[in-house]
Design a protein that fits this description.
Radius of gyration: 27 Å
Order of helices and strands: HEEEEHHHEEEEEEEEEEEEEHEEE
Number of domains: 2
Shape: elongated
Distance between the termini: 76 Å
Number of helices: 5
Structural class: mainly beta
Helix content: 10-25%
Length: 357
């Protein structure tokens, strides 16, 4: 009986060795045998099976890309050490991390196929920032030249090991590569750049909070001098059309007295020294005005009406990760609103996405 058992075991071992010798590719489910730092691969290289590996500088997050799909793997032991989770978040948090598998976990909700990725620490993107280190941002370069992103850590997953793309970044197209670098010539804050074939770069942190900018109406409220509120709302489309309504609010009753429509454009590219600005340009025209000029209009009314026939302006813009507002600040040109009926131009606006089409 013992001799028979030995023969069967040897035969089984031979089959196993033969199967391993004939294996030409690696599935993502078996990727643990290709951990970065081993002799098998270098981070950034393709491992057997055409798996592209990307990793942050500390090794907290590793991204594997194969056949247009992406998966994420964490080093939970390193997370606990670097973030000192037990001391900063309590023993329960450290205990919970022990029950979250390091992965690999698939990235869900992608709009297309992934071709490359970069992992970096960008404070301007992370709204879970620790005292000394931002939560890693994973930027994904898609095969169509667009970019998607998400934050990767044991604490920002949608569930244990669940990671979802936050969506396609607006206005960023024709990208050929991603990089994690300083904003200005080797110093300053770090960011992730999306580079185009002509060498121009987008600084993606300006728009990471605006993946839903086309999904609804953005509203702005600010107190006026009569106890009410100045009010306007604005909406954007992917084909660069914009609509603006201007009015006021008294005792919960909103009144619109100007309506505009037209086009907008966006400037996101970094400057030659690595710095950059996020600018939005409006070219809108007055569609409707509440006032009736009549047969003999007042000169002031006529001048105001004439001056508001078009609204052409340049605005700085940014997304505030603290209160989730889309902010515009007048650089030059026409204001969206004025104080009073013919008052001073209002330069700064904070918009909340409060209604949807």
């Amino acid at each position: 009986m013992n001799r028979l058992f030995l023969i069967i075991a040897v035969i089984a071992l031979c089959f196993a060795l033969a199967a391993c010798g004939g294996k030409e590719s690696v599935s993502l489910g078996d990727i643990d045998q290709y951990q970065p730092g081993t002799e098998d691969i270098d981070v950034g290289d393709e491992v057997p099976g055409n798996i592209l590996v990307r990793q942050d500088e500390f090794g907290l997050v590793t991204v594997y890309i194969e056949n247009g799909s992406a998966e994420v793997m964490l080093d939970s032991d390193l997370w606990k050490k670097m973030f000192n989770i037990e001391e900063n978040m309590g023993p329960e948090a450290a205990y919970a991390v022990d029950f979250i598998s390091d992965g690999p976990w698939p990235v869900e909700g992608l709009s297309g196929r992934v071709s490359d990725a970069v992992v970096g620490y960008v404070e301007g993107i992370d709204y879970y920032t620790a005292d000394f280190l931002a939560t890693p941002t994973v930027a994904l370069l898609m095969e169509d030249g667009t970019v998607e992103y998400f934050l990767a850590s044991p604490f920002v997953a949608d569930g244990p090991g669940e990671y979802h793309s936050n969506g396609r970044l607006p206005w960023i197209t024709d990208v050929i590569s991603l990089s994690f670098d300083y904003q200005v010539d080797g110093y300053g804050a770090m960011t992730i750049y999306a580079e185009k074939a002509d060498g121009n770069k987008y600084d993606i942190q300006y728009v990471t909070g605006l993946t839903n900018i086309f999904d609804g109406v953005w509203e702005c409220f600010m107190p006026d001098e009569w106890g009410g509120e100045y009010y306007c709302n604005i909406s954007f489309t992917e084909d660069y059309k914009v609509e603006l309504n201007v009015g006021d609010n008294y005792d919960g009753s909103y009144e619109i007295f100007e309506q505009y429509s037209g086009m907008y454009d966006v400037y996101l590219e970094a400057l030659g020294d690595g710095s950059g600005e996020a600018l939005m340009y409006f070219t809108m025209f007055l569609d409707w005005w509440i006032a009736e000029l009549g047969e003999d209009p007042d000169e002031d009314d006529l001048e105001y009406w004439y001056n508001r026939q078009d609204l052409i302006g340049e605005y700085y813009f940014y997304f505030n990760k603290e209160d989730f507002t889309f902010n515009l600040y007048l650089s030059k040109g026409d204001a969206l609103m004025y104080t009073g009926w013919r008052g001073e131009p209002i330069k700064g606006y904070s918009f909340w996405q409060t209604s949807f089409h």
